[in-house]
Amino acid sequence: MKNKRFNLFLIAVVTLVSIWSLIPTWQDYMYTKQLESFGTSRDSLSYAMSHRDDIENARKKSLKLGLDLKGGMHLVMEVDQVDLFEQKAWNKDAKFFSIMDLVRKNAAASDARVIDLIASEFRKENIPLSRYFYDIRNSDKEIIDKLQKESDDALSRAKEIIRNRIDQYGVAEPVITTQGSRKIIIELPGVSDENRVRNLLKGTAKLEFRLLREPEVLLRTLDRINTYLAQNGSTVTSLPVKADTTASPAPVSNAAAVPAVPAVPAAPAAPAAPAANVAGQSSKPLYDLVGINQYGVPVTTAQSRDFVSALFHRADIMALLPPDTELLISAKPDDYGSKTQKFYTIYLVRKTPELTGGVITEAKATFGSQGVQPEVLMSMNSEGTSKWARITGANIGKRVAIVLDGAVYSAPVVQSKIPNGNSVINGIESLEEAKDLEIVLKAGALPAPVRITEERTVGPSLGADYIRAGMLSLLWAFVAVSGFMLFYYKKAGIAADIALVLNILIVLSVLAGFNASLSLPGIAGIVLTIGMAVDANVLIYERVREELAEGKSIAGAVSQGYDRAFSSILDSHVTTLVAAFLLYTYGIGPIQGFAVTLMIGTSASLFTAIVVTREIFEGLLGKNQLNDKSFG
Hints:
Blueprint: H1 2-38, H2 42-50, H3 52-61, E1 64-65, H4 67-70, E2 72-79, H5 81-88, H6 94-108, H7 114-124, H8 140-169, E3 175-179, E4 183-189, H9 194-202, E5 207-211, H10 215-231, E6 258-260, E7 290-292, E8 298-301, H11 305-312, H12 315-318, E9 325-329, E10 343-350, E11 355-356, E12 360-367, E13 374-380, H13 382-394, E14 400-404, E15 407-410, E16 423-426, H14 431-443, E17 450-458, H15 460-489, H16 491-513, E18 517-518, H17 520-549, H18 554-586, H19 590-622
Parallel strand pairs: 1-18
Antiparallel strand pairs: 2-4, 2-17, 3-4, 5-11, 5-14, 6-16, 7-8, 8-10, 9-10, 12-13, 13-16, 14-15
């Protein structure tokens, strides 16, 4: 009697937990339908913000669909380890940069470890690695080991930061794995805004707070550059576009925010447009690309922005700048009143940052006090708070540039000391941009730039077709198997079908509960599980029929049927579990998806066939509703 109560309790718990695990999937479906009903109206944004926590919680706990079902992106990203090693080097000179240029070219054409390519080039030049890396007393082997550890750590850290960004973005069950010494394989099901994801993943998220140099110093520097270019016979058409490889990465366009301490008001008048580009010799080659507005602010147009940025990062141009300074361009066009042209402001900032984004502990996208303009609230740790208070207190009336990935997002005037480490990042155009900035600030900066080397997209319409085909195959398999069991085994077939429904429910709930994704191979695993589940019931029912044929009572036949069929059922399920485990261990991608559902389904079918159906029969026997004809 105690055993019976325990079995009933176990069945009830498993059923309730399975339903509870799938409730977020239903909630996610209903929230999605509700948001779709609003279309692109403001009501959709208001609804999303008012139910943000509920939507995110349901999406996080819901059953995930794989890339083949939901559509999405497949990306191969490569960590720029040449840049990483350049950052680790000291005492860098022209020889070092020429060697690293060769390494960069070789790395682009080879999958070999970057550290091996570096060691090879240094051996050719007969230069010890200790000349540029670590301690002068270190041998080449010791340095190679240390740099390789840096490489492995950078790859692992990049993988985790990318995973954090993707998780906060809200992609359901991403697949992120490493390949070789510098590549990361990423599968993102359900992604619709592909360009936004690219920018989110590629952005290094290197946040810096830098002091601006005085405006007159900036103008003198531009004059010096213009004179140098004119003396060397440079023209607009002859200026090299490619930036020096030793420079910091080019600004990332379409990134997400304008940080703030108090914002600088935009100038009300439009600047004078830069002089038209002309072929041939020019006495003002720089000013053919850069204009000075009536307020003395240097600007460049959208057409010239990338060209000018590359020019400012050339080694010979950087040598003309004042010590510890760098010329940067705004990430977004500034509002100077022009409706026909976009102008980007040019800044001369100190190269050494006063503070970096490593002190950021929290960032949250929200709306401002007016409830209209998106902004990001930012908090710092104790170290950052004390430094930020010192920096703002010592530079009241001066401007601080907030730089993300080499682009200036804002250069506000420090109006007062900020003692609590809290700042507001405002001037953001959309909530999506605010969320993206929140993500990259919370996830942290990548140890080195990454680039996308391969990209494939599975369209949502193709994914919908796969879902339809997969669900049809699952439905027809269930109908065919359950129909056969009803036809052949009569009342016993009903018990088998109830166990079959519970089996499928358990599989889906476990996938949802452990944040595993359901893919086409996973559906195939469920279909195979359906067949295996009724196979166990067939073994039991045939044993029962044999016992009945020998003249035993219905209760004795049921008891003997389960007891004698148990060993065969256990053997078949254990061997299937072992095979599925090996598939999962040594397989990749789709094979693992098939193996996971097969393992869950096999375990569930063992439970439903041995425990669930037997308790159903025990209940029917207690009510005298089971007889010889109940098994066909």
